[in-house]
Specification:
Elements lengths: L7 H25 L1 H31 L5 H32 L26
């Protein structure tokens, strides 16, 4: 077996362990200081402000390009969903009315146009 004092892998592991301990103690010390928390709060505020400005800029760009914003598309989707729900309720009410009056009509299928073309006569189209 190799000697532990001359083993390069063991030396590397020991060095990495010591570096990790040093970094952890430095990070814990830095994070416990009030300056660190102030700097972190300022950075968070700057990021939130930048995100808000970008959102406003994007809104102006979309208005200029005559395109809907995310909020407008969401509002449209909600309205459409509400309308579809109301149509569904109307279909079920019409189906109930049709069933109670004895009318057999399906409201799900689109109405078909009247058939105007006649099939050929039995003698091959000649009179």
């Amino acid at each position: 077996m190799t000697d532990k004092t001359n083993d390069p892998v063991a030396m590397w592991q020991k060095m990495m362990g010591e570096m990790e301990k040093g970094f952890n103690s430095f990070a814990n010390q830095a994070m416990s200081s009030p300056e660190f928390s102030q700097a972190l709060n300022r950075a968070g505020g700057v990021a939130a402000g930048a995100q808000k400005q970008l959102g406003e800029l994007m809104e102006k760009y979309l208005v200029t390009m005559n395109l809907p914003s995310r909020e407008q598309v969401t509002a449209l989707a909600e309205r459409l969903q509400s309308i579809e729900g109301q149509i569904g309720e109307m279909k079920s009410m019409l189906s109930q009315i049709a069933a109670s009056s004895g009318i057999s009509q399906s409201f799900d299928a689109a109405p078909r146009p009247p058939r105007t073309k006649r099939p050929p006569s039995e003698n091959g189209g000649q009179t």
